[in-house]
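Sequence in, structure out. Go.
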Amino acid sequence: MFKTVGSRVWAFDAEWIPDPQGGRMLYHLEPDLTDQQVFEVMWQQGGATPEDPMPYLKTVLCRIVSIVAVERVTRGSDVTLHLLSLPRDTQDPTHTDEKHVIGTFLGKAGQYKPQLVGFNSTSADIKAMIQRSVVQGLTVPAFCKRPNKPWEGEDYFDSRNSEASVDLKDVLGGWGKATPSLNEIATLSGIPGKMDVDGQQVANLWLDGRLDRIVAYNEFDSLTTYLMWLRVAHFGGHFTTRQYEKEQQLVRDLIAHEVKENHKTHLNDFLVEWDRLEGMRQ
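Output:
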C-alpha cells in the first residue's frame, strides 16, 4: 500500500504501436514495404501464432503515440482536476511526433514533479518512455535527476524507496492468476474498464489514420486508472468515505467540463457506463 498522496498526482496511461521505422532498421526490411507489412514481420519475429497473431512486443520496439494523465492538484483545501492529453492536436505532425509526445510528458514531469500513478506502469509505461527517449535521443535531466537520499526528493527510478511513482498493479497484484487486470478490478468496483476499444486494436486504428480514437481510448483508460487510485486511496485511509464521494464528483465535473469546453463528447460514454455499473452494484 502506498503511504502518501502527493500534492500533484498524475494518473496516466500510454499507448504504443510497433515502430515501423524501427522494424525496417532491425530486420533489414525494404524501405518500400508498407507499415502494415512491417508490422506483420515484427509480430512474426515476436512469436505470432494463429491464436495470438499480434503478440506483445518488447517496448523498445514500439512507438509511443499517445500519453494521457488525469492531474489532481491540491492547494490547501482546494482540489482541482485537469485532463492532460498528448498529442494535443492529432492532425498536426509536430504534435504527433514521438519525440514531442514523450519529451513533453517527461519534461513536464521533471518540472512539476508529480506523483505518477499507473497500472503496470513501473515495468511497462515508464520503462517504455525511458527506452524510447534513449532511442529518440531525447534529454530530460529534470526527470532523471535522483536525490542523494530517498527522503530528499522525488526519484522516478526507485520504486522501492520512493513513492514518486505508484504502480497500482504492484499494490493490488499477487502471483499469476491472482493478479487482476485493470479492466477486471475496475469493472467489479463499479468503474468503467475497457470501452469500445482494446489495446490490440490500437495498431489498426493508427494504420487507418484514427489517432483521434486512440487518444480517446487513452483518455478512458486514464480516467479508469484515476478512479481506481481514488478507490485504493480510500481503502488505505487517505480519504474518508465522505471525501471519497466528493472526489468522485470532481471526476464527473471534469468530464462535464471537457465535454462542454473541449467538445470531447466521447467522454459521455464513460459517464453512461459508470452509471450503469454503479446501478448494478446498488
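Check: The first strand starts at residue 8 and ends at 18. The mean pLDDT is 95.
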